Amino acid sequence: MHASPRPEKPILQVDGLCKSYGPTHALGGVSFDIYPGEVHALLGENGAGKSTLVKILTGVISPNDGVMQFDGTAYSPRTILQARVVGVTTAFQELSLLPNLTVAENLSLPRLTKGWLGLNSKANNCVAAAATLLKFGLCELEPMKLVSELSLADRQRLEIVRALSHSPSLLILDEPTAVLPSTEWLFDLIRKETAKGTAVLYISHRLNEIRQLCARATVLRSGCSIGTTDLRDTNDAKIFEMMVGQRMAASPKQSGLNQLAMKLLTPRLRVEGLNAGIVKDLSLNLYPGQVVGLAGLDGQGQCDLFHGLFGLIPKRSGNIEVDGKTVTINSPSAALAAGIQVALLPEERKTQGIFGDLAVRSNMAVSALNRIGLFGLISGKNEKQLAKGVASQVGLQDRYLDFQITDLSGGNQQKALLGRVLLTGANTLLLFDPTRGVDVGTKQALYLAIEDFVRKGGSVLLYSSELAELVRLSDRCLVIYEGRIAAELEGDSIEETTLVAAATGHYRHKAGEAA
């Protein structure tokens, strides 16, 4: 995809961009360029300045210093619409779609198609939307469906299609595959766009994707561009070192429990014949000191499984045991009740996880109000002390505790949410894609926190959309397909090709049985 000769003149030139918010320097000097037809990677930890740079490029905010040129002309957009007119569009990671409007209306904004009376025409907007969806291979979406009724993956696809529908000269994709079950659709669109000369700024933490798409990458660290590197001459360890300023730590060996040990122990969590949502007759065992991974393509029942175990959706039948005792979990409060020590880290941080109007310390300590207050009154001192105690466990700096949580990067927000889950005192954690959309450094911090929790006797059921993550962390790994467990793997048999085969329905094997 990146073998074509480079044009002589960049489409975008960025030189010395700086942006400060009072004493806080979000960008301290960023310089790079992008050429027509190039897919250029932007790498960096959460908090490195990537989001600020995207906001400047798209006209959401203005820099304090530095200059930009687009197609040889001075470029300083003041709104998203100004950037779009010039030829710059963005598919944001924090989706910008309006959930209370239809697919067609979101595609048509800000100028809805009018009818002969000058009023908005639903029919005309629907026809236009259908043509756009067909053009970009997304015709399975219904134009009149509300965006709030779409899956997270379909919302991400719609966000990308909306950006492409404006025929950009520069397309900015911010973590575009974080929730997509497959990259095939997106990569095919990117190939078609770059063949026409469209430049793509591709922001992702998934280095395997970066290497498939990009020849060059610009690395940001602490708001500054460390350099632009040729990826063919740069290994992953060097990229990590550029991003965080230190060498990548080696992955620890999995400890795991063998089959004999599991037969002697009472499961921390036992699920028998669970039917909930699209989950069908599902059974699993989770033991103390163990991470059980869960792999599966989008929409195979993993979300219903987690929500069923946490009491967010009703179960039609089945039995759940905690430490050998049958329990009834029909609400989150029941899951957190005495003797039912289960806590959930949800799928969508922005809508299901954070309290945007509260400080970081309050977001963390809300799961332990009984430990920081009396008679309905909260002690700010106790709240901060409690949050500070767990912050070190998840790699969150103390200075962030007084920030409003929406002012933090996505990775630091995720650390705060994991801290909240740990403060419940639960001995079983349900972690749903906990590292989605976070950088390599944040992933390392979250991995260490999970491994420390398990080492102390905790149990973790972990769903991840990244197979390499499951290979690293799982003592056993289950694969869910059409609401059922299609495979159960352990130890050295947990490897990516087998997980892919099972996730697509081409491999069925239970641990301990012949294949």
Could you explain the architecture of this structure?
With 515 residues, this protein is of the alpha/beta class. It folds into three domains: 12-244, Rossmann fold, CATH 3.40.50.300; 249-341 and 426-507, Rossmann fold (3-Layer(aba) Sandwich); 357-424, no CATH class. The protein is built from 18 helices and 22 strands. The chain has helices spanning 50-57, 80-86, 103-108, 122-135, 152-164, 184-195, 207-213, 236-244, 259-264, 302-309, 332-335, 349-353, 360-365, 380-391, 410-423, 440-455, 467-473, 496-503, and strands at residues 12-21, 24-34, 39-43, 65-70, 73-74, 88-91, 170-174, 199-203, 216-221, 224-230, 269-276, 279-286, 290-295, 317-322, 325-327, 342-345, 373-374, 377-378, 428-432, 459-463, 476-481, 484-490. A hairpin with a 2-residue loop joins strand 11 (269-276) and strand 12. Helix 14 (380-391) crosses helix 15 (410-423) and helix 15 runs parallel beside helix 16. The longest helix has 16 residues, at 440-455. It is globular and about 70 Å long. Mean pLDDT is 84; it is low at 250-256 and 510-515.
Entry keywords:
Rossmann fold, 22 strands, 515 residues, six-stranded mixed beta sheet, 3 domains, alpha/beta
Biggest beta sheet attributes = 6 strands, mixed
- Mean pLDDT comes to 84
CATH topology name of the largest domain, in short, is Rossmann fold
Please compute the radius of gyration using only Cα atoms.
24 Å
User: Which overall shape is indicated by the principal axes computed on the Cα atoms?
Assistant: globular
Q: Spans with pLDDT under 50 lasting ≥5 residues?
A: 250-256, 510-515
User: Treating each run of at least 4 consecutive H or I residues as one helix, how many helices?
Assistant: 18
